[in-house]
């Protein structure tokens, strides 16, 4: 290996109710190495354990968001490979995070990172960006969770279009098919992310986090009805619902505490 791609690992920053994970390997289109998977899983545990957090932004440095998993990473970094879960496990863990998540897509999204971004609750992209899934072109059979997620989020026809042809899609088409939830000019990206993160941060956390879990379960065809009803009961008896109703009557902004 001529260059140590273990350098510049992802970082985690926490500021008030917002956490930000940023990919920093821009010279390699922010490809994900085995050691990055270990670090990201640790970050996810840290975020879930912090009850003051209300939203996570996943961002990246450089012109591209990410080229996905480095297929040669396990051969090049055997020590990390021995400790790292699979890329699919990291993606599933990201989807299961307690708080709402936003992907800040400042550029191209490729390979496994198309699935990583798809697991976010919101994806804000920019005009001029592109996305493609090159599995068929590389001879890679994608993992079951990613195939299922593409179908449940984007529909069967779109999933086949993306997986079986490796077609490259531009920003406007990504918005049309629902891959992007928001599309803005590059100069407006950070303001759009901040605006959405601010909106999510002031919502009632018990309700938001409970409904996120239920909606993801519904998307996978695996809703735990009893657990969903129990979360609804807890919300109904919470101080947050009393605060929400009081704020509505007083025509003021509510201050939720997640209890």
TrEMBL record:
SUPFAM superfamilies on file: ClpP/crotonase
Gene Ontology terms, MF aspect: catalytic activity
Coiled coil: none
Gene3D superfamilies xref list: 2-enoyl-CoA Hydratase, Chain A, domain 1 (3.90.226.10), Lyase 2-enoyl-coa Hydratase, Chain A, domain 2 (1.10.12.10)
Organism domain of life: Bacteria
Family: Belongs to the enoyl-CoA hydratase/isomerase family.
Protein name, entry field: Enoyl-CoA hydratase/isomerase family protein
UniProt source species: Neoroseomonas soli
